[in-house]
Write a structure and sequence with these properties.
CATH topology of the largest domain: Glutathione S-transferase Yfyf (Class Pi), Chain A, domain 2
Mean pLDDT: 93
Radius of gyration: 18 Å
Helix content: 40-55%
Largest sheet: 4 strands, mixed
Number of domains: 2
Order of helices and strands: EHEHEEHHHHHHH
Strand order of the largest sheet: 2-1-3-4
Number of helices: 9
CATH class of the largest domain: Mainly Alpha
CATH architecture of the largest domain: Up-down Bundle
Structural class: alpha+beta
Length: 228
Amino acid sequence: MIDLYYWGTPNGYKIRLFLEETGLAHRIVPVDIRAGEQFTPEFLAIAPNNRIPAIVDTAPADGGAPISLFESGAILLYLAEKTGRFIPQDLRGRAEVLQWLFWQMGGLGPMAGQNGHFNVYAPEKVPYAIDRYTRETARLYGVLDKRLADREFVSGNEYTIADMAIYPWIVPHEAHKQNLDDTPNLKRWFKKIGAREATKRVYEDAQASYATPMTDEERKVLFGAPAK
């Protein structure tokens, strides 16, 4: 059994996609990040960076004590290795998946996240920041579009955890000021993944729109946490 500590964000959806595709037994434990539930001692014991998602595997492969993990990329890799699914077993195929998984974690996620912050959530418009992150998101979309020019999925012809990691960050493309018509290969890939039954089930169960209005108090909770 996998306990998934979750809220409806792009990083949260990544893990939902994997669990829905595999049918791996799991239980969703909501963590309302707008109410500050990510700062409770119980959650911090699992995810010390106070971010969702996190998991607890109550039946790890070694038969030992439960294993907890935070960071969505690490969770995807762990689950792929646990089930033997959605990651190639050969050296070269695995390398292809891992580099695009890390591309999302180190590039698309942080840049699109800042894009969303300054375009959607920031209490005041900062033109330089909006332009900076909108342009960088567009550049990354272009990288992905070129990658998909001669292949069905990001790492080749098989759907993998790399696609699962990237797709939820493309979902809010309109809020991020991106037009998929400018990247036809990406648009084709996006529609293909969106048509998968598992994807439809996950997003039909979405908790709220990406751009749901936020109160001042919720904004303080999400964006005002001190270093300590």
